[in-house]
Amino acid sequence: MDIKTTELLRASQSWDGAALPEYPAGKPELIVKRLTFPAGAKTGWHHHTVINYGIIQQGDLTIVCQDGSEKTFHEGEAMVEVIGTIHRGENRGQKPVVLDMFYASYPNAEITIQHPEIINENS
């Protein structure tokens, strides 16, 4: 049997067009997380410190940046997340969103920095 290969994503920039940063020197640490967003759920405002990308396994996820820009990713789509840009994820749909995220990190890195001090009238 032949194995089918489908390239879902190849990128050197995040979804907003910003160039990805250089990899830090040293030992890598790869992290994979599955995030499940119930219908109507929003993450808090946060930013990432390392390159990360993911695949929407179910539902539609909208990423909203603090400056108001946003993009919705749909089931089956791959995405490269913004790095160093404050943003949040929102499930505006009726079913849960399941998102598998992959982080190109290094030992002891804080991959996500929360910003609870940010209050937005649409929170």
Coarse morphology: globular
Largest sheet: 4 strands, antiparallel
Q: Which stretches are low in confidence, meaning pLDDT under 50 for 5 or more residues running?
A: none
Q: Please state the structural category.
A: mainly beta
The neighbouring-strand order within the major sheet is 1-8-3-6
- Which fold name corresponds to the CATH topology of the domain at 33-108? Jelly Rolls
User: Tally of extended strands?
Assistant: 9
The assigned CATH architecture of the domain at 33-108 is: Sandwich
Percent helix: under 10%
Strand content: 35-45%
Average pLDDT score: 94
Pattern of helices and strands? EEEEEEEEE
How does the SSE layout of this entry go?
Layout: E1 29-37, E2 46-48, E3 51-58, E4 60-65, E5 70-74, E6 78-80, E7 87-90, E8 97-105, E9 112-114
Antiparallel strand pairs: 1-8, 2-9, 3-6, 3-8, 4-5, 4-7
